[in-house]
Amino acid sequence: MSIRNYNFLAGLATTKPLIFYGVLVLLVLPILHNLAAALACFISCFGFLCLLAWCSTLWILHALAAALVFWGETPIMGREPLGLPPSGRVTPTSGPPSTPPQWYFG
User: Any transmembrane segments, and where (predicted)?
Assistant: First the structure.
């Protein structure tokens, strides 16, 4: 087992931090929101309204985090995907390459 596979999260955090933190937000945020919503229901007289407010906030934050991850991995506003030529297309060759091109590993 290689060091990169063994330390997958640390490798992901250094090579693609936007995906790492986006997934972290998508996984950790719902748990924190659910705990806070449950606490608000027990403390507040208007617990249902607090729960409703937390849930609506949760959906907005999920959408923002998903958009952030999507934007970070999509060529927008002149940014090119890693490894692809400026045209954005892979040009055909006469035969198979001896080693996979850089874009193969994504």
Answer: 7-31, 37-70
Q: Using CA atoms in the order 71, 7, 26, 35, what is the torsion angle rounded to 10 degrees?
A: -160
pLDDT digits (tens, 9 = 90+) for 15-33: 666 666 776 677 777 777 7
Are 72 and 36 a contacting pair, CB within 8 Å?
A: no
Show me where the domains of the chain are located.
1-74
Contact 25, 69 (CB under 8 A): no
- Indicate left, alpha or beta for 77 from its phi (over 0: left) and psi (-120 to 50: alpha): left
For the record, the structure tokens of 93 come out as: 């060759």
Q: What is the mean pLDDT of residues 5-21?
A: 61
Burial, 3: exposed, middle or buried (Cβ in 10 Å; 0-12, 13-18, 19+)? exposed
Residue with tokens 């959408």: 63
CA distance 40 to 50: 6
